[in-house]
Amino acid sequence: MIILPAIDLIGGKCVRLQKGDYNKVTIYNDDPLAQAMSFKEAGATWIHIVDLDAAKSGIPTNHEIIAQIASKTGLKVDTGGGIRNMDTLSRWIEDYGVSRCVLGTAAIKDRDFTEKAIAKYGEKIAIGIDAKSGEVAVDGWTNGSGVNAVDFALIMKSIGAKTVVFTDIARDGMLTGPAVESTKEMVDKTGLDVIASGGIGCDDDVLNIKTSGCTGVIVGKAIYEGRVDLKKCLQSV
Questions:
Q1: Most Cβ neighbours (<10 Å): which of 67, 147, 169, 209?
Q2: Largest CA distance in the chain
Q3: Any residues with CB less than 8 A from the CB of 52 and at least 6 apart, and which?
Q4: Rounded to the nearest 10 degrees, how much is the dihedral formed by the CA atoms of 198, 20, 75, 100?
Q5: By the 8 A CB rule, do 67 and 99 touch?
């Protein structure tokens, strides 16, 4: 299982939201590049970065920072937020050097684009499935889609997706433990590579989510608040 330390960006700063609420923002670092370098020094090989400004607006906002992180750290960058057309997607992968792009709102709202993205870039595309009470949320988690998370994952699998980033919104930023059961359901019912996100609050939570069968876990707030020892966890998984 891969651990992906997370950087969420608003206004060029590292932040975390509570349950995806843009009105509940905590700023943890004014220098995202320095933060990314610290993750590399701890032993990380991947990093998960979300442009929260773009996730809400659909307009790439923090792309220069993400490109810097990709080029200057050598980390494999998994990124999402506002990627809703082929021009933007191509810039991320071909110009900015990110290793994988996560399609969230676009995957729900624009099937044609999603199919073209997977056909062209294959495993460089992941599908972001952010669920609230089992329903996929869109537009930076501000709206519901009316689509069941597992059902949607199976649809994405049918058009060639191999990886999903599965977030339990109710747990995100709450440090109350990961959604082991729903993550395991996603793994068992779809057979996809599932990267779990949301709720990690301590080192043991990292080991617990591994029992779901997920191939990766995203850890954010718990690292910033000193609840997870990234270096130790990287060595133990």
A1: 209
A2: 43
A3: 8, 9, 10, 15, 17, 22, 81, 140
A4: 90
A5: no
Q: Which of 8, 51, 78, 172 is catalytic?
A: 8
Q: Please identify every stretch of the chain with a pLDDT value under 50, giving residue numbers as ranges.
A: none
Buried b (16+ CB within 10 A) or exposed e, 216-236: bbbbbbbbbeeebbbeebbee
Round to whole Å and give the CA distance between 215 and 143.
28
Active site residue 8: yes
CB-CB contact of 82 with 41 (8 Å) = no
105 with 139: CB under 8 angstroms? yes
130 flagged as catalytic: yes
How high is the pLDDT of residue 172? 66
Q: How many CB atoms lie within 10 A of CB 51?
A: 25
- pLDDT for 145: 63
| Residue of 51, 53, 78, 130 marked active site | 130
